[in-house]
Amino acid sequence: MSRQIRITPSILNADFSQLDSEIARISSQSDLIHLDVMDNLFVPNFTFDFDRASQIINSCPIPVDAHLMVADVDLIAPAYAEAGCASVTIHAEATTNIPSTLRAIRRAGARAGLGIKPGTDIEGYADLLDEVDMFLIMTVEPGFGGQSFMHEMMEKVRRTRAIIGDRPIWLQVDGGVSLSTITEAAEAGADVFVAGSAVFGAADPASMIVSLRNLAMAVAD
Ligand code: DX5
Ligand code: ZN
């Protein structure tokens, strides 16, 4: 198996009052920065409104992977692409017209991601392979950082990898990814790994990213 491995640190558990310096600590080793956008409706937590998110996107020195955990995402998702995100992920559970919103994200110049919560099956979305650049399998209930990795999601990751086959679609896992869980996720077929508290809780966040990548690459090689 030979897959490119990407590590996308989530800034959810970073210090929001000094985000520039928090991002500077990890940017040399990160493939993308994972920006968790929460509206206190789709999930019981709030992070950024669009204006604040746009500031972060504009000042971020590396590509931004926006994870939109917001209700009624159809209209706002293309705006995140226009704001300069490299990748914009919508949740299947929050989107009214999934194919049209995925197409609008691509038209606005970003990769189109489709995420599903732990209780949602992937099979209902297998016919969207031509519209999707990345599937996101949540390995915690969305809303908060620092939760425990749901090992029982690995079967869903394996099924998603089988559906993707050889297509150049990324397969992301998000939630509870750490030195003790990343190997299992990579073995199940994931190739893009969000890590929040594992990175920002480490004494040296940049070297934690290197360690996580090395573990995943050992499986993917
Ligand atoms: C949860 C977020 C995750 C979270 C990951 O709703 O989507 O991106 O920040 O944080 P950890 O790695 O701490 O689980
Ligand atoms: Zn996320």
From TrEMBL:
Q: Name one GO cellular component term.
A: cytoplasm
Q: Which InterPro entries match?
A: Aldolase_TIM, Ribul_P_3_epim, Ribul_P_3_epim-like, RibuloseP-bd_barrel
Its UniProt entry gives the catalysed reaction(s) as: D-ribulose 5-phosphate = D-xylulose 5-phosphate
Judged by the first EC level, this protein's enzyme class is isomerase
**Entry keywords, A to Z:** Isomerase, Metal-binding
* Any one Gene Ontology molecular-function term assigned to this protein's record: metal ion binding
Q: What is its EC number?
A: 5.1.3.1
A biological-process GO annotation: pentose-phosphate shunt
For this UniProt entry, which segments traverse the membrane?
Answer: none
Write down the required cofactor(s).
Co(2+); Zn(2+); Fe(2+); Mn(2+)
UniProt lists the family membership as follows: Belongs to the ribulose-phosphate 3-epimerase family.
Q: HAMAP family under this entry?
A: RPE
According to UniProt, the name of this protein is ribulose-phosphate 3-epimerase
